[in-house]
Amino acid sequence: MQTHSFELFPDRGLIHIFLFSEVKNSSELRKRLLSHDTELSYAFINARILDVFQLLIAINCALHNEKCSILKTRNINSEIVYNLSPNTNINEALRRFGISDDSTNIIVVKVGGEANEIKSHLTSLIQGTETSLENLFKFGDLGIIKKYYRVDNKVNDVKEILNIIVGSMAVKIEITADPISNPLLASGGCSVYFKKTLSKLIDKVVKEFGDKMILASITFGLNRSTAG
Amino acid sequence: MTENAILIKQGAEARVYTTPFLTKKAIIKERFGKAYRHPILDKKLTARRITQARVDTPVLYFVDMENNKIYMEFIEGKVVKDLILENKEIKKAEKIGIAIARMHSVDVIHGDLTTSNLLLRDSNKSLVVIDFGLSYISSLPEDKAVDLYVLERAFLSTHPNFENMFAEILEAYAKNYKASKEILAKFADVRLRGRKRNMVG
């Protein structure tokens, strides 16, 4: 177990993080979560993440959204899971980072509360073995992590991968737009493509007609800011 | 913000603090300029692109849009400006050229390239580009050329005796960026006329 205090949210108390391995009743837990069982007011996370820091970033974001009343999901717990994702698709985030029926290694996060009480409650809930979070790296699946966060296959340094992950969580983006940062979704990025084509076109014309073009562009209300 | 945040820089548009943050040391950049359009939103795409291009920049930890604050990695390193002034390790030209080449290859224009915005990481001697506050996305060779020109001006004013170094930077830039030919041609134009465009008519 690890306990963390969050600098930005001192009112929220301590945040406790547990790691369980050899869990046998994930499907039961998941079913109860889906039916919004209030006894399970924890964030359940699939333990195949890379590092605790990654989780801390997600928790920090969730606490922030809660404080500003801009939760995107039902509650603080689902918000933590959601914030592990690099994009804004809630369904996908819960599926990828929450627990599934066959999860055997799971992380449980509890915001607030008293560590020992939580621990005994969790041991009664979860049929598994509690283990130190230092073992987390054993459960990470680099292939899946790279896929989820769109990390270039050439990048193999774990530290660098973690940096990319944390960065992409911090700039959680809408699924659309940018063909370079989001190559798989390039087809959805027509507006950016349009802008790019437009700016290329303007550049070409500027090259050919030089300064006359500037006059023309002013006349037509086209300028660099609309194209750039 | 935390009580432990220490103000380290106060500018016209932003304050910069250091603070402990989630087990690490972090930098907070707080924007308070009023004419700040879309505070952080349009920086998101820039941040993504930059990571994809593998330019070493501070890792973003947390973007607080409600309070216009950005939390990012604190870099243990030295400012390139100081290194040059101390006459040390001037072999950084190639690294600088490569970093700018990578940045431009994904159409990110830094907007304020100076030797104060370049750091050298202590741990692995990697060149870190910081302060994307004036950055924007553009594929125009013109904009990239102006970006280079800004660096040249900064270079000549802060390090008048290091003209060679800037030439080396350009060389590395050209070598590591396929589309650089057109940009360097534009750069020559920009040099003649200055940063601003000619307005005729």
UniProtKB/TrEMBL annotation, chain A:
Q: What subcellular locations does the record give?
A: Nucleus
Supply one GO BP term: tRNA threonylcarbamoyladenosine modification
Where does this chain mainly localize? nucleus
Gene3D superfamilies from the xrefs?
CGI121/TPRKB
- Read off the Pfam families from this record: CGI-121
The organism's superkingdom is given as Eukaryota
Q: Which InterPro entries did the record assign?
A: CGI121/TPRKB, CGI121/TPRKB_sf
Q: Which family does it belong to?
A: Belongs to the CGI121/TPRKB family.
The protein depicted here goes by the name EKC/KEOPS complex subunit CGI121
Per the UniProt record, the source organism is Diversispora eburnea
TrEMBL record, chain B:
Q: Name one GO molecular function term.
A: ATP binding
For whether the record's keyword set contains Lipid metabolism, the answer is: no
* Keyword Glycosyltransferase on entry: no
Enzyme category, top tier = transferase
- Which processes are annotated in GO (biological process)? tRNA processing; tRNA threonylcarbamoyladenosine metabolic process
Residues annotated as domain Protein kinase: 1-201
Reactions catalysed, semicolon-separated, are: L-seryl-[protein] + ATP = O-phospho-L-seryl-[protein] + ADP + H(+); L-threonyl-[protein] + ATP = O-phospho-L-threonyl-[protein] + ADP + H(+)
Recorded superkingdom: Eukaryota
Q: Which InterPro entries match?
A: Bud32 (IPR022495), Kinase-like_dom_sf (IPR011009), Prot_kinase_dom (IPR000719), Tyr_kinase_AS (IPR008266)
GO CC field = cytosol; EKC/KEOPS complex; nucleus
| Protein family | Belongs to the protein kinase superfamily. BUD32 family.
Protein's name according to its UniProt entry: non-specific serine/threonine protein kinase
Record organism: Diversispora eburnea
* Taxonomy of the source species: Eukaryota, Fungi, Fungi incertae sedis, Mucoromycota, Glomeromycotina
